[in-house]
Amino acid sequence: MQGQQKESAFVDANYFYGSILRHNKDIEHLIKGHPKGFILGYNVKTFGKSRWQQAYNYPDFGVSMVYQNPQNDVLGSTISIHGHYNFYFLKRNLFLRVATGIAYAENPYDIDTNPNNNAYGTHLLGSSYFMLGYQRKDIFKGFGLKAGLALIHYSNSSVKSPNSSANTFAATLGVNYQIDTDVQPTYRQTTKYDKVQQPIHFNMVLRGGIQEGRVIGLGQKPFLVVSGYADKRLSFKSSIQLGVDAIFAKFLETEIAYSAAAFPQNGVRGDEDYKRVGVFVGYEMHINKLSLIGQVGYYAYYPYKFEARVYLRPGLKYYITEKIFSVVTLKSHWASAENVAFGLGFRI
After folding, report:
1. Are 332 and 340 in contact (CB under 8 A)?
2. Partners of 102 in the β-ladder
3. For 253, phi and psi rounded to 5 degrees?
4. Could you give all domains of the chain from N- to C-terminal order, each with its CATH number?
5. pTM, 2 dp
6. Which residues pair with 89 in a beta bridge?
7. Which stretch of DSSP H or E encloses residue 124?
8. What is the pLDDT of residue 194?
9. Residue 5: its pLDDT value, please?
10. Which of 251, 222, 233, 218 is nearest to 342 (CA)?
11. N or C: at which end does the chain have fewer Cβ atoms within 10 angstroms?
């Protein structure tokens, strides 16, 4: 019904079957059996009421639940809840779902009862998944079919060790059901929008959290990251960034002292500075008030060798106002997560 903005929604159910990827040699003993499970989703369609909906080809947003049985008693089952977007291509038959959320692991590491699970150190984990597939909607009375591939990730981001994490690559097969087949609003298409033109802006961000290092039992320590960066808006969708991080991670101070005492043959004296300074470049993809960010950094000041000198920092950013934003990021050295950080920033 043209002119109405009635919410239009559909649900989907997907079965998956796959394998755990060997992203880290430390989890080789956990790669046995083939994980299987299901993904349930509730999806709300968009029809171009806002500019971002038109810019991204009318995506869906929604919530989804994932249940996974790895068929491995050491890992145990997981159940997770996510927020997600569905993006469409090829006349809306090809879709990409991007989802992030939180998971509960049935059987994490325990020094007495489950010492072999070095993938999950806690019951609560961060979880994300990507699903790429082909679908046909409303084939018969609102029901349609879909099939594709999924990548499902679980990690506690080194909040507590161990945290080798696990990634499942799987094939999916599912059905979808359009709830309101009788009412389908019309897609809006605005022919002209003003071009986004902004000067360079400067940003300050404080982020932090708790984490535990590579050695199990040294305890959780706080960390703080102070970042300053410049950003330039290139278009309605995109910005680029260039900045500096000052990183104060107390777990490194503990690890330096431990390494000097336990492994003097490695050449660690014990008085090395635990602080680090990095420079980074980044990209920001704007989706309404939410942004997806990805940054690549290099430690310019690196007195103690920890993991790689290059670091990655994907994350989510939410603009509370035009000048104040919140952010959550995952910092990693390739496949090894260092921390998950929560922060607040100011843009001038």
Report:
1. no
2. 81, 126
3. -60, -40
4. 9-178 (2.40.160.20), 201-347 (2.40.160.20)
5. 0.92
6. 94
7. strand 124-140
8. 87
9. 55
10. 222
11. C
